[in-house]
Amino acid sequence: MIPIYLGYTFTIEPRDPATEILIAELGYTGFESFTENEAGVIAYIQKGEAFPEGKPVVFGDLLTDIHILQNPDFTITYKAEEIEQVNWNEEWEKNFDPIEVDGKCAVRAPFHTKTDVTYDIVIEPKMSFGTGHHETTHMMIKHLLKMDLDGKKTLDMGCGTGVLAILAEMRGAKPIDAIDIDNWCYLNSLENADRNSCKHISVYEGQVSLLENKDYDIIIANINRNILLQDIPAYAKCLPENGILFLSGFYTEDIPLISEKCNEHGLYFVSNYERNNWVACKFEKRA
Length: 287
Prior knowledge:
The protein is an alpha/beta fold.
């Protein structure tokens, strides 16, 4: 059976930087592919996944975490239509350019030319989120490039394409667990780990309940504010004293709220990166 997709055409004024922020937030809520245009962006999601009762013009609970739609600095309108088939690989290949972080790490597709960097990561994102183009993934890469990962037991929570887990292994981390609740992300992370000849990454489909009785030296969680606030207590239980937690997927103004929740569980702010109001923070577990 061919899945039916909904295509949401968003008209955005002003277009930048709202388009990139909207794509990121939609990606975290289940939208699977995006095509940018001069007016904004078209976002795709399976109809059965988002709207089981077939109401394509009702966002419902999907609006909960999409802050940009309520930002008075931007005017965003949308319309929806059913789309029976989309060549997803063709869509993202049109818009996926290789990226480079700090002259040390490149993230590219198989059809891109290899670059002269220390860490050359090859991924096919397909319907998964996390190519390194968005600020959150880019900043998490920066954190990992600065961190001594050699022999560190690591968790990539909300792994998406698996790009952060792959970089962690390239920098010496092992063993590594990569977890995502989305089946596409699970399958894509398996594929990308194999493509990059990773030997120490175990990929799981599921959520925070999988962390019961687990322990890690380093936890990477690039999700969204509400999920992070819910799951921080579980992350804290998995970390020893001096363990490191990297968090991203939220805005600069959310740092006090995130830090307060971390402090309640013995996790204390160390540093952060910021790009276009998105942040990636480093916390340390202390007695």
